[in-house]
Amino acid sequence: MRETPYYSYVVGELPEGCKYCVRGEKLVLFVTGVCPRNCFYCPLSPWRRKDVVYANERPVKSVKDIIEEAKIQDARGAGVTGGDPLARLSRTIEYIKALKEEFGKKFHIHLYTTGILADEKALQKLYDAGLDEIRFHPDLFEPNSKFLQREIENMKKAFDFSWDVGGEVPAVPGFGDRIKWFASLLDNMGGRFLNINELEFSETNLRNLLTRGYRPISDESSAIKGSLELGLEILEWGEKNTSLNYHLCTAKLKDAVQLRNRLIRMAKNVARPYMEITEDGTLRFGIAEYEDLEELYELLVEEAGVPEEWLYINWEKKRIEMPVEVAEELADAIEGDVKFYIVEEYPTWDRVEVERIPLN
Ligand code: SF4
Prior knowledge:
Pfam families: DUF8061, Radical_SAM. By secondary structure, the protein is an alpha/beta fold. It has helices spanning 16-22, 63-73, 89-103, 120-129, 148-157, 176-189, 206-211, 227-241, 251-270, 293-303, 324-333; strands at 2-3, 9-11, 26-32, 54-55, 58-59, 77-82, 108-113, 133-136, 164-171, 193-198, 245-249, 276-277, 283-289, 312-314, 319-322, 339-345, 353-358. Bound molecules: iron/sulfur cluster.
């Protein structure tokens, strides 16, 4: 077992889909929130557990939105997720085909599924559409699961196709034996890898996790106590007892590496000339807020002498955007009700603001 430069751990080789993901090159394609299961650790918010489609943070109305988002990210592949994408199979097929058509065969696509709906016909369609890698997430953590047997039977069928078959499960403390059982099964079937995620809480699953006795490792982290340790134990065990490749994907990897790399790729494509790209991939620029934006614009151009190319009226956010230095100078020079700030935003579709510093 070795530690990777991305704060994760690996036995053997990193799964192909993960190689793209850590570089921030994977578009996250959320095909539907519909899922036949109801895992107690499901992190999806109630508004995502519906039949909605997102490409990264962008709500999707048509395939065009997906292609546009992939271009902005300069994506080299996609991870098809949900819910269970197979709960909306024809939509999933349509999107995989469209991405392969637009970006070529090498655009690497992997898909997560419970396996419940992965019958021969569905698998054949996915394979024909060009899917490169399929990851099974069976119902290991529910005693007497009514799904598990069917999921495992369907997983067997996936080995009739020449794509990478692997597993992906969270490291839920207390369930080490179940995960090892699944790893052995996958190994005996000829599986390629098992990706284990450090368990994290979200607003949605927090109550469920607390009720079952799970606790976050600290006030600053969403990772669950004991999950990383369990993941490491399984990797050590797996190295000795199976020939699978393993990857233990940590909360830190998702946050500090994968997200940051994706933001940097996106920032390069969406930054306007007056925006700085920070080393975290956020956009930093100055803004002025005032009730009457037209009046403010005129004041800045005609009275303060700011060149028009340095100013951008953002009607949606009701503000004028500009380089940081210009906002700093204007904040000193202009008196009255105009408020100047330096802001930092994600370059994502939803443009989450992560920092705001008042200048006057
Ligand atoms: S399989 Fe995934 S999407 Fe479905 S309920 Fe479980 S965690 Fe949520």
